[in-house]
Protein backbone atom coordinates (compact mmCIF):
# COMPACT_ATOMS: atom_id res chain seq x y z
CA UNK A 1 0.00 0.00 0.00
CA UNK A 2 2.82 2.39 0.86
CA UNK A 3 4.44 1.62 -2.48
CA UNK A 4 1.26 2.44 -4.35
CA UNK A 5 0.84 5.68 -2.42
CA UNK A 6 4.44 6.65 -3.13
CA UNK A 7 3.96 5.92 -6.83
CA UNK A 8 0.76 7.98 -6.90
CA UNK A 9 2.48 10.88 -5.15
CA UNK A 10 5.39 10.70 -7.59
CA UNK A 11 2.96 10.77 -10.51
CA UNK A 12 1.09 13.77 -9.12
CA UNK A 13 4.39 15.63 -8.71
CA UNK A 14 5.67 14.61 -12.15
CA UNK A 15 2.59 15.81 -14.07
CA UNK A 16 3.09 19.56 -13.44
CA UNK A 17 6.88 19.25 -13.60
CA UNK A 18 6.56 17.90 -17.13
CA UNK A 19 3.56 19.88 -18.36
CA UNK A 20 4.54 23.39 -17.27
CA UNK A 21 7.51 23.53 -19.70
CA UNK A 22 5.30 21.97 -22.39
CA UNK A 23 2.75 24.73 -21.85
CA UNK A 24 5.32 27.30 -22.90
CA UNK A 25 4.48 26.32 -26.48
CA UNK A 26 1.30 24.21 -26.21
CA UNK A 27 -2.02 25.88 -25.38
CA UNK A 28 -3.49 23.96 -22.42
CA UNK A 29 -6.98 23.19 -21.21
CA UNK A 30 -7.96 23.49 -17.58
CA UNK A 31 -9.21 20.90 -15.10
CA UNK A 32 -12.74 22.44 -15.13
CA UNK A 33 -12.76 22.31 -18.93
CA UNK A 34 -11.63 18.67 -18.87
CA UNK A 35 -14.29 17.84 -16.29
CA UNK A 36 -17.02 19.32 -18.50
CA UNK A 37 -15.72 17.43 -21.53
CA UNK A 38 -15.74 14.14 -19.59
CA UNK A 39 -19.28 14.69 -18.29
CA UNK A 40 -20.63 15.70 -21.71
CA UNK A 41 -21.32 19.34 -20.89
CA UNK A 42 -20.54 22.07 -23.42
CA UNK A 43 -17.21 23.87 -23.48
CA UNK A 44 -16.74 27.06 -25.50
CA UNK A 45 -13.17 28.33 -25.84
CA UNK A 46 -11.38 30.19 -28.63
CA UNK A 47 -7.73 30.87 -27.91
CA UNK A 48 -6.45 34.42 -28.36
CA UNK A 49 -2.78 35.48 -28.30
CA UNK A 50 -2.05 37.98 -25.57
CA UNK A 51 -1.27 40.74 -28.07
CA UNK A 52 -4.73 40.27 -29.60
CA UNK A 53 -6.38 41.20 -26.28
CA UNK A 54 -7.25 44.64 -25.03
CA UNK A 55 -4.58 46.26 -22.87
CA UNK A 56 -7.40 47.79 -20.84
CA UNK A 57 -8.64 44.29 -20.08
CA UNK A 58 -5.16 43.14 -19.05
CA UNK A 59 -4.78 46.13 -16.74
CA UNK A 60 -8.25 45.60 -15.28
CA UNK A 61 -7.67 41.90 -14.60
CA UNK A 62 -4.24 42.43 -13.04
CA UNK A 63 -5.33 45.33 -10.85
CA UNK A 64 -8.44 43.44 -9.75
CA UNK A 65 -6.98 39.99 -9.21
CA UNK A 66 -3.30 40.52 -8.41
CA UNK A 67 -1.93 44.05 -8.24
CA UNK A 68 1.61 42.81 -7.53
CA UNK A 69 1.61 40.38 -10.48
CA UNK A 70 4.63 41.94 -12.21
CA UNK A 71 6.63 42.16 -8.98
CA UNK A 72 6.28 38.84 -7.18
CA UNK A 73 7.61 35.34 -7.94
CA UNK A 74 4.27 33.59 -8.18
CA UNK A 75 3.13 34.27 -4.63
CA UNK A 76 2.51 37.50 -2.75
CA UNK A 77 4.42 36.80 0.46
CA UNK A 78 3.11 39.81 2.38
CA UNK A 79 -0.50 38.98 1.46
CA UNK A 80 -0.01 35.36 2.56
CA UNK A 81 1.49 36.49 5.86
CA UNK A 82 -1.55 38.68 6.44
CA UNK A 83 -3.85 35.75 5.68
CA UNK A 84 -2.02 33.55 8.19
CA UNK A 85 -2.28 36.25 10.85
CA UNK A 86 -6.02 36.66 10.16
CA UNK A 87 -6.50 32.88 10.33
CA UNK A 88 -4.87 32.54 13.74
CA UNK A 89 -6.70 35.63 14.99
CA UNK A 90 -10.04 34.13 13.96
CA UNK A 91 -10.71 36.81 11.36
CA UNK A 92 -12.18 36.01 7.92
CA UNK A 93 -9.60 35.08 5.28
CA UNK A 94 -9.85 35.83 1.57
CA UNK A 95 -7.25 33.44 0.16
CA UNK A 96 -4.50 35.81 -1.09
CA UNK A 97 -4.44 33.96 -4.40
CA UNK A 98 -2.25 35.51 -7.07
CA UNK A 99 -3.01 35.09 -10.77
CA UNK A 100 -0.22 32.49 -10.89
CA UNK A 101 -1.76 30.57 -7.98
CA UNK A 102 -5.14 30.66 -9.72
CA UNK A 103 -3.46 29.37 -12.87
CA UNK A 104 -1.89 26.50 -10.92
CA UNK A 105 -5.29 25.62 -9.51
CA UNK A 106 -7.04 25.73 -12.88
CA UNK A 107 -4.36 23.64 -14.60
CA UNK A 108 -3.63 21.00 -11.98
CA UNK A 109 -5.89 21.14 -8.90
CA UNK A 110 -9.53 21.46 -7.88
CA UNK A 111 -11.81 24.40 -7.02
CA UNK A 112 -13.18 23.41 -3.60
CA UNK A 113 -11.54 25.49 -0.90
CA UNK A 114 -9.18 23.65 1.43
CA UNK A 115 -5.88 24.23 3.16
CA UNK A 116 -4.46 21.21 1.34
CA UNK A 117 -5.21 22.78 -2.03
CA UNK A 118 -3.73 26.10 -0.90
CA UNK A 119 -0.58 24.35 0.29
CA UNK A 120 -0.22 22.71 -3.14
CA UNK A 121 -0.88 25.96 -5.00
CA UNK A 122 2.10 27.73 -3.45
CA UNK A 123 4.98 25.55 -4.73
CA UNK A 124 3.19 25.09 -8.06
CA UNK A 125 2.89 28.87 -8.48
CA UNK A 126 6.57 29.38 -7.68
CA UNK A 127 7.52 26.70 -10.23
CA UNK A 128 5.25 28.17 -12.91
CA UNK A 129 6.71 31.64 -12.34
CA UNK A 130 10.23 30.21 -12.55
CA UNK A 131 9.56 28.47 -15.88
CA UNK A 132 7.16 30.86 -17.63
CA UNK A 133 7.46 34.55 -18.45
CA UNK A 134 4.74 36.80 -17.08
CA UNK A 135 3.27 37.34 -20.55
CA UNK A 136 2.69 33.60 -21.01
CA UNK A 137 1.25 33.20 -17.51
CA UNK A 138 -1.34 35.92 -18.11
CA UNK A 139 -2.03 34.69 -21.65
CA UNK A 140 -2.88 31.20 -20.41
CA UNK A 141 -4.89 32.55 -17.49
CA UNK A 142 -7.01 34.78 -19.72
CA UNK A 143 -7.66 31.86 -22.07
CA UNK A 144 -8.61 29.19 -19.51
CA UNK A 145 -10.43 31.15 -16.80
CA UNK A 146 -14.14 30.38 -16.64
CA UNK A 147 -15.89 33.44 -18.02
CA UNK A 148 -19.55 32.57 -18.42
CA UNK A 149 -22.41 30.54 -16.94
CA UNK A 150 -22.66 27.96 -19.73
CA UNK A 151 -19.17 26.61 -20.21
CA UNK A 152 -17.56 29.75 -21.63
CA UNK A 153 -13.84 29.61 -20.97
CA UNK A 154 -11.38 32.31 -21.89
CA UNK A 155 -12.00 35.97 -22.49
CA UNK A 156 -12.94 35.53 -26.16
CA UNK A 157 -15.91 33.35 -25.21
CA UNK A 158 -16.68 35.63 -22.28
CA UNK A 159 -16.74 38.78 -24.42
CA UNK A 160 -18.88 37.07 -27.05
CA UNK A 161 -21.37 35.83 -24.45
CA UNK A 162 -21.58 39.17 -22.65
CA UNK A 163 -21.40 41.71 -25.47
CA UNK A 164 -21.24 39.82 -28.77
CA UNK A 165 -17.79 41.28 -29.52
CA UNK A 166 -14.13 40.31 -29.78
CA UNK A 167 -11.93 41.08 -26.74
CA UNK A 168 -10.01 43.82 -28.58
CA UNK A 169 -10.12 47.59 -28.17
CA UNK A 170 -12.58 47.31 -25.30
CA UNK A 171 -13.89 50.43 -23.64
CA UNK A 172 -12.88 50.87 -20.03
CA UNK A 173 -16.45 50.11 -18.96
CA UNK A 174 -16.63 46.79 -20.80
CA UNK A 175 -13.12 45.75 -19.76
CA UNK A 176 -14.03 46.34 -16.12
CA UNK A 177 -17.41 44.62 -16.44
CA UNK A 178 -15.77 41.53 -17.99
CA UNK A 179 -13.30 41.46 -15.11
CA UNK A 180 -16.09 41.41 -12.52
CA UNK A 181 -17.20 37.99 -13.79
CA UNK A 182 -13.99 36.22 -12.78
CA UNK A 183 -14.79 35.42 -9.13
CA UNK A 184 -18.14 33.84 -9.99
CA UNK A 185 -19.01 33.75 -13.72
CA UNK A 186 -22.14 31.68 -13.12
CA UNK A 187 -23.71 34.45 -11.05
CA UNK A 188 -21.99 37.63 -12.18
CA UNK A 189 -23.17 38.45 -15.70
CA UNK A 190 -21.32 41.43 -17.23
CA UNK A 191 -23.74 41.52 -20.16
CA UNK A 192 -26.66 42.06 -17.79
CA UNK A 193 -25.07 43.74 -14.76
CA UNK A 194 -26.86 44.60 -11.57
CA UNK A 195 -26.32 47.97 -9.96
CA UNK A 196 -23.97 46.30 -7.49
CA UNK A 197 -21.93 44.76 -10.30
CA UNK A 198 -21.67 48.14 -12.03
CA UNK A 199 -20.40 49.61 -8.78
CA UNK A 200 -17.71 46.92 -8.53
CA UNK A 201 -16.78 47.53 -12.17
CA UNK A 202 -16.47 51.23 -11.45
CA UNK A 203 -13.96 50.56 -8.69
CA UNK A 204 -11.96 48.23 -10.97
CA UNK A 205 -11.99 50.80 -13.77
CA UNK A 206 -10.80 53.59 -11.50
CA UNK A 207 -7.98 51.44 -10.14
CA UNK A 208 -6.91 50.24 -13.61
CA UNK A 209 -6.93 53.74 -15.07
CA UNK A 210 -4.74 55.01 -12.25
CA UNK A 211 -2.36 52.09 -11.74
CA UNK A 212 -2.72 50.05 -14.94
CA UNK A 213 0.91 50.47 -15.98
CA UNK A 214 1.84 48.23 -13.07
CA UNK A 215 0.81 45.43 -15.45
CA UNK A 216 3.27 46.60 -18.11
CA UNK A 217 5.40 43.44 -17.77
CA UNK A 218 2.91 41.77 -20.14
CA UNK A 219 3.37 44.39 -22.88
CA UNK A 220 5.94 43.55 -25.59
CA UNK A 221 7.59 46.98 -25.28
CA UNK A 222 6.95 47.45 -21.57
CA UNK A 223 4.11 49.95 -21.98
CA UNK A 224 0.38 49.21 -22.12
CA UNK A 225 -1.75 51.22 -24.55
CA UNK A 226 -4.34 52.47 -22.08
TrEMBL record:
Q: Name one GO molecular function term.
A: pentosyltransferase activity
Q: What is its EC number?
A: 2.4.99.28
Stretches assigned to the Glycosyl transferase family domain: 42-190
Q: Which GO terms describe its cellular component?
A: peptidoglycan-based cell wall; plasma membrane
- How does this protein sit in the membrane? Single-pass membrane protein
Q: Glycosyltransferase: present as a keyword of the record?
A: yes
Which reaction(s) are listed as its catalytic activity?
[GlcNAc-(1->4)-Mur2Ac(oyl-L-Ala-gamma-D-Glu-L-Lys-D-Ala-D-Ala)](n)-di-trans,octa-cis-undecaprenyl diphosphate + beta-D-GlcNAc-(1->4)-Mur2Ac(oyl-L-Ala-gamma-D-Glu-L-Lys-D-Ala-D-Ala)-di-trans,octa-cis-undecaprenyl diphosphate = [GlcNAc-(1->4)-Mur2Ac(oyl-L-Ala-gamma-D-Glu-L-Lys-D-Ala-D-Ala)](n+1)-di-trans,octa-cis-undecaprenyl diphosphate + di-trans,octa-cis-undecaprenyl diphosphate + H(+)
- What are the transmembrane regions? none
Q: Where in or outside the cell is it found?
A: Cell inner membrane
Q: Which pathway does the record list?
A: Cell wall biogenesis; peptidoglycan biosynthesis
GO annotation terms (biological process): cell wall organization; peptidoglycan biosynthetic process; regulation of cell shape
Q: Which domain of life is it from?
A: Bacteria
| Annotated keywords | Cell inner membrane, Cell membrane, Cell shape, Cell wall biogenesis/degradation, Glycosyltransferase, Membrane, Peptidoglycan synthesis, Transferase, Transmembrane, Transmembrane helix
Q: What InterPro entries has UniProt attached to this entry?
A: Glyco_trans_51 (IPR001264), Lysozyme-like_dom_sf (IPR023346), PBP_transglycosylase (IPR036950), Pep_trsgly (IPR011812)
Q: What class of enzyme is it?
A: transferase
Q: Which Pfam families match?
A: Transgly
The record's family statement is: Belongs to the glycosyltransferase 51 family.
Q: Which HAMAP family match?
A: PGT_MtgA
User: What function does this protein fulfil?
Assistant: Peptidoglycan polymerase that catalyzes glycan chain elongation from lipid-linked precursors.
The protein, known as: Biosynthetic peptidoglycan transglycosylase
Amino acid sequence: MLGWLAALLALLVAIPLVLVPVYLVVDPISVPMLERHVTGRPVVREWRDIDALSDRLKASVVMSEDGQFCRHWGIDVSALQGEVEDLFAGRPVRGASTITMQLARNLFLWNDRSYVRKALEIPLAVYIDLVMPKRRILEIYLNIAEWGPNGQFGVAAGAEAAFGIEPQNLSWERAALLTTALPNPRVRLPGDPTSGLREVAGVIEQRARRYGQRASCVAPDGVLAL
